[in-house]
Amino acid sequence: MKVEELVTKRQVVICCGSGGVGKTTAAAVLALEGARRGRKACVVTIDPAKRLADTLGLEALTNNATEIARERWIDGDPNVAPGGQLFALMLDTKSTFDLLVTRNAGDDEQARRILDNTFYRNVSGALGGTQEYMAMEKLHELHDEGGFDLIVVDTPPTRHALDFLDAPQRLVRLLDNRIFRLLMMPTRASLKVASVAVQTFLRTVSRVVGSAVIKDIVAFFRAFEGMEDGFRARAQAVDALLADPSTAFVLVTSPRRDALEEATFFADRLATNGQHVQALIVNRIHPAFGDESPMGLRTTAEALRLAQSDPAERLATLYDNLADFREVALLEREHIDGLRDKIGSAVVAYVPYLAHDVYDFEVLHEIGNLLLAGDTLIGQ
Amino acid sequence: MHVMEVADFCSTSRVVIVAGKGGVGKTTVTGALAVTAARAGRSVLVVEVEGKSGLPAMFGAPPLGYEEIQLDERVRARFLTPDAALVDYLVSHGMKRISKRLVSSGALEVVATAVPGMKEILVLGKVKSLEESRAADLLIVDAPAAGHAITFLLSARGLLDAVQVGPVRKQAQDVIGLLSDPARCQVLLVTLPEETPVSEAIDTAFAIEDRVGVALGPIVINQCFGALPDDVSVDPNDILRDAEACRRFVSDREARDLARAAAFRQERHRLQHEQIERLAKRLPLPQIELPFVFTPDITRPQLDVLADALTSGIGRL
User: Does ipTM top 0.85?
Assistant: First the structure.
């Protein structure tokens, strides 16, 4: 497999990795390269840095994919394939959730009761993993209804790169909660059986947070009645889309130990789901600067310092500096090789330290060229 | 001399919250600050609030749990979870019997969803009780990645709107008391000398002061490339000339590698310097620069190097 196949053959590409490693940029680059090859591509971003958002024409949260004018992203290049389109979207978690509720509600009245509920407003804003869940929900919606050839999804900046895999199931778990079941009981049957447990729970919680909160919770769960099946089915559909062979996972990492450890953890986790990382993108790798051994270089520097002359001192400084860079380069490559071995057949693309942050289509395409060259060490 | 200044700095407030966006090295700075304070004779307790911290590995220790472990001389660390903090709280407030049930039934998950900021309040409330019980001379909290850091710090105020009565409201008020008292708590913001991290640090700093009302300590700029001396040339021909002058054989290839590595460093230094200047102009906070340590792995020797830099940075404040 080549990195290029990600943007020419796959329908869904999910960029994952821990925070601060360049996921959003990688997602934008992959969508751009897909569009340049004639596909109708969309990048779903989450909280992009301001200048990148401006480039993608994303001034605010948008719940719909917005097309970026072709002349902006082809950047005057006559070699761009005809027919390609580039869309971008900045995830609006709350509206996405609202739409999901509206679609699953039995009638307008049920939808209204839920949307107006304080507890729901908290769920849609603050439930751990809601953003991840809605990113996957949005992906599903775009995939089913958007008519895109390629959708590239950025995942939220969590410390735990794989939160989004669990996210759809997390709401289902909340709905399956025993307490929830108990709260539902009075509206169904066996009021007496339930009441003792329910009363105990309510008393307990009231003592800690007050009874107004309880009223909201009860109202929410009652309003939600009958919708759990719809949500459960949707969570399964999202899982199925993630498992589909037309979906590819791209792991984005920096060569630093903590980021790589999470990348390894993520790859393992995907493997237990029967999925694989198709490509590994290593950002911010230091150049190799030749092949001398750091130890040899340091010995030379020490020997030079003995001479105690200006030219020797200058040379010694240069040898020490090269030794520093050789050391970091060797360690970075060792770490990356370790990760490669663990994740098997994934292709690896390297993006060197760039002089400037990425904020226009020219630089995005430059990175695209580096990425799509795939499996060659860039930055020599 | 320096030791005294570090001791003074560590007495500014008993709680230091280390915050910054993902990937800037918050945990590294947390570790370096712990070593710095310990060297000045202070006892330190590091509190991690997100799972899978890289901190213990830096000290060669196993992963953290809810129980304190000793990482180094005068440095202890522990992990705080909302669940365990809630149980602690209920037990110490005469609600031992219901505490376990609230957690084991999964009710906390439901309640925490109903009350945004509840989990953060439980964790910060525990930090507050550690501070009050003088668990250590210095408590360092390794905060969640920003903007989660802002959410984390704003949780107490948000909670006051949602919860009108009860012990959780009291807890939130106490947490606000801690956060808004510069003599008890300050935030150490960490960033990298690069465009996006600098922009985000500026936004975060203003948000923290305006919306959270927490005192900001100096801003720590991590991974700075120091400049090479002025007389060092990045031209291979100059390098070959110097080699000849001290009668040492340097191959053309080696001269090229030496020159390229030096040019790379000078260029990065220049770019970083621009960003550091921009940060100084936009954010009126004292700066402490930490050097890039030329390894992707931070272990004890690197923490010592960074602690040296923190010590001299504090001395210059």
Answer: yes
**Closest chain A CA to residue B244:** A311
- φ and ψ of B97, to 5 deg: -60, -40
Q: Which DSSP helix (H) or strand (E) runs through A189?
A: none
A80 touches chain B (CB under 8 A): no
Cβ-based contacts of B118 with chain A (< 8 Å): 209
d(CA B45, CA B75): 6
- Partner-chain contact A213 B111, CB within 8 Å: yes
Residue-wise DSSP of B241-302: HHHHHTT----HHHHHHHHHHHHHHHHHHHHHHHHHHHHHHH--S-EEEEE--S-S---HHH
CA nearest to B55 within chain A? A258
A192 and chain B: CB distance < 8 Å anywhere? no
Residue entry with tokens 């307790």 = B45
Taking the CB of residue A112, how many other CB atoms lie within 10 A of it? 14
**pTM of this structure:** 0.89
Question: Does B162 touch chain A if contact means CB atoms closer than 8 Å?
Answer: yes
Residue in the structure block whose two tokens are 């640090």: B201
Phi, psi values for residue B299, rounded to 5°? -130, -175
Chain-chain contact of B260 with A127 (C-beta, under 8 angstroms): no
CB within 8 Å of A200: residues ≥ 6 apart = none
What gap in Å lies between CA B175 and CA B226, rounded to an integer?
Answer: 40
10-residue stretch averages of pLDDT, chain A, 380 residues long? 86 87 90 96 87 84 87 90 94 88 90 88 67 86 94 76 66 66 54 60 73 78 79 85 90 87 83 83 91 96 94 96 96 89 79 76 91 54
Contact A331 B297 (CB under 8 A): yes
The verdict on B296 touching A (C-beta cutoff 8 Å) is yes
Nearest by CB: A207 against B23, B166, B232: B166
Are the CB atoms for B12 and B186 separated by under 8 Å? yes
